[in-house]
Amino acid sequence: MTDATERTIATPIRGFAWMLAALVALGPLAIDAYLPAIPSMANDLNTSLHQIEITLSLFLLGFAAGQLFGGPLSDKHGRRLTILIGLTLFMLGSLLTAIGWRIELLWVGRLLQAFGGGMGVVNTMAMVRDRYSGRESAQVLSQIVTILMIAPLAAPFIGSFLLLFADWRAIFMFLFAYAAVLLLVLRLNLPETRLAQHVTIISPLRRYLAVLKSRPALAFLFSTAMANAGMFAFITGSPGVYMGHYGASEALYPFLFGANILTLTISNQINIRLLRHFDARLILRAAQYGQLLIGATMLAALLWLPLTLFTLVPLVMLFVGMQGFIVANGMSSATDFFPHSAATATALISASGFTLGAISGALVGFFGDGSPLAMVSIMAICPLLGIVLRSLLQR
Q1: 323 with 290: CB under 8 angstroms?
Q2: What is the 8-class DSSP label of residue 35?
Q3: Cβ neighbours of residue 105 under 8 Å, at least 6 residues apart?
């Protein structure tokens, strides 16, 4: 009996997808919940909006670093231990951010929060890979992502709701409480899934070099990472574009932001069904070209036509929706090359996406002039780079 078969027929874990989705939700909750509070944070700390926006780029970098550290730790010492340590660090970072009275403390708190979150989240794909392979892995991951869509949809509303009754610090106390409850639930209900019989003592550097030397795996790594970079360009630029340039209210912004989660949820459901008939790699390639076409359409409309808010929003929805076909299929395709070091491979893939996301977000802030040009341009360039890099590496 093959290893893949053993994973596929493994004894089901009750609530497996729900627990992993709740774990992955740490990222979007920590990223999106405080977006409506950015202006009030700047006023309260007597600093500029730019100084507050830096916390988002720092979070993405810290999240990437946490995954790079947590991946090898998980492969060597187990998924559960890494998750529990990560959640503890996330709680400490949330608490430090909530009580911070200077912008520097916010930076440190967000880095610690992100590092812990990255350590925990990196185990999600690894735990799926421990139990499933190939098409089954992509289907389970799509199910998790579908459940996960509740977090980015709800996060801006949670932030706006808390601001009605308290200041921005309540948002980070909410994140602290969420991580505390999740720590208890996973400690009691989530078993270890690492395949201990396959564990060998290999240094983290050698594990990462093994991934980097695999051209086919790198092709899917960059496909996923560039797609994430395009989405983070939108996340970083959308408050300024939607509320600043187009004049959308703080009450309307969560609805405009949440509309993208609708298309992402639908695309994940469609992806689950398509995987019954088509190879994950074929679906990924088609989605990349679709995302490139949508990005080019947004840029052309901005340059040569009046791009109104209600023209931009549906195009962004379609752009983000393509993530449902790219990320799940790219992650499952890449980790198939590394069945016994899935967490390390997942860490490198996911960390690359968050690092490029931090870079694309910083570029949006640096070149932004209050118009949608910087955001839309980077969103159009990212899928093009993803296609080019994948094509070069698959030759």
Answers
A1: no
A2: G
A3: 96, 97, 99
| pTM (global) more than 0.85 | no
Select the more confidently predicted residue: 289 or 34. Answer: 289
Count Cβ atoms below 10 Å from residue 226 Cβ, excluding itself: 29
How many angstroms separate the Cα of 145 from the Cα of each of 18, 21, 191, 202, 240? 10, 7, 21, 31, 27
- String of DSSP letters for 203-246: -HHHHHHHHHT-HHHHHHHHHHHHHHHHHHHHHHHHIIIIIIIS
Torsion angle (degrees, nearest 10) of CA 2, 7, 8, 9: 90
The string of pLDDT tens digits covering residues 51-66 is 776 777 788 888 888 8
Output DSSP code: residue 275: T
Token look-up 């520097």 returns 104
Kind and range of the H or E run holding 140 = helix 134-148
Helix (H, G, I), strand (E, B) or coil at 125: helix
- Contact residues for 38 (Cβ-Cβ < 8 A; gap 6+): 49, 52, 53, 239
State which amino acid sits at residue 352: S
Give the residue among 25, 31, 39 at the shortest CA–CA distance from 257: 31
Using CB atoms within 10 A of its CB, is residue 293 exposed (0-12), middle (13-18) or buried (19+)? middle
